Amino acid sequence: MAILILGILLWVLPHMFKRLAPRRHLMLMPQVRAMVAGAVLTGVVLMVVGYRMAAVIPVYTPLPGMGHANNTLMLISVYLFGVSGARSVLIDKIRHPMLTGMLLWAIAHLLVNGDVASIVMFGSLGLWAVVEMVLINRAGPWKRPKPGSIGGDIKNLIGTALIFGLIAYVHIWLGHNPFLGTYP
């Protein structure tokens, strides 16, 4: 569990620094930014390793059929992650598409995993996404980007299908088939 918590901290703290001390963040040299990015990436690896190593201590039993809700929320989550990059029609309608996607990702996983490690990891990252949205909203008004296009949506839908397929493949490879409801 310590590895999992360290990974979460290596994800959350650099992201929070960016919001809590934006002027200092902007003054960071490129080398320091690269080190921070490395810390975040290390955090992701440690979260995966720590989660896989953590003992399964049940807290609640997920309701039957939640695998379908999980898969639906995951599709929406992956789509939201791509809204900005693909310049989807939603780009000027949702202020925080990636953070909203992250929150949906966390909720989706809490629907199908009721153990302590899942609550710690997915709960922490979902809470982080909400705090980030609040901090960004408090920093000032939203400058809406230019409207997106249907072409951007088509690119995003194709990307969503490919990324969702890759995520499902990795989960199956790790022994957790999201389509058959085999979760830890």
Primary descriptors:
single chain, 184 residues, mainly alpha, 7 helices, 73% helix, globular
Task: Provide an overview of this structure.
The structure is a single chain. By secondary structure, this protein is mainly alpha-helical. The protein has helices at 2-20, 22-27, 30-53, 66-86, 97-112, 116-139, 150-173.
Brief description of this entry?
The protein is mainly alpha-helical and 184 residues long. The protein is built from 7 helices and no strands. It is globular and about 45 Å long.
Measure the end-to-end span.
Answer: 16 Å
Helix content: over 70%
- Count of DSSP H/I helices: 7
- What low-confidence regions span 5 or more consecutive residues with pLDDT below 50? none
Overall morphology: globular
From the alpha carbons, calculate the radius of gyration and give it in angstroms: 17 Å
Biggest sheet features: none
By DSSP, the count of extended strands is 0
Structural class per helix/strand content?
mainly alpha
Give the topology string: H per helix, E per strand. HHHHHHH
Mean pLDDT: 90
Q: What share of the residues does DSSP label as strand, in percent?
A: under 5%
What is the secondary structure topology, with strand pairs?
Layout: H1 2-20, H2 22-27, H3 30-53, H4 66-86, H5 97-112, H6 116-139, H7 150-173
Helix pairs in contact: 1-3, 1-6, 4-5, 4-7, 5-6
